[in-house]
TrEMBL record:
It is found in: Cell membrane. The chain crosses the membrane at residues 6-25, 32-53, 59-80. Keywords: Cell membrane, Membrane, Transmembrane, Transmembrane helix. The keyword Isomerase does not apply. The lineage of its organism: Bacteria, Bacillati, Actinomycetota, Actinomycetes, Mycobacteriales. Its main location: membrane. It comes from the Bacteria. One of its GO terms (cellular component) is plasma membrane. Pfam families: Transgly_assoc. This is GlsB/YeaQ/YmgE family stress response membrane protein. PANTHER family: UPF0410 PROTEIN YMGE. It is a multi-pass membrane protein. Belongs to the UPF0410 family.
Amino acid sequence: MLGLGIIGWIIIGGLAGWIGSKVMGTDEQQGILLNVVVGVIGGLIGGFLLGLIGVDVEGAGLIFSFLTCLLGAVILLWLVKLVRR
């Protein structure tokens, strides 16, 4: 995602955050800004976790970046649900 710049992070993060919120059932509680934040933070979480298990996440392409953000967004939303209970 490095080559995409800030606009790429916002677009990919927004899509990943939105789909992640649909998967986790939190879409009604989030607006577009929170979806972008969840997706971008999810990308950081997903990249970190995949890096821990030896997956090279840099330069893997647009689809892999999106899937990494989506994975991290779902994990982040799951953790938020745990804390809110």
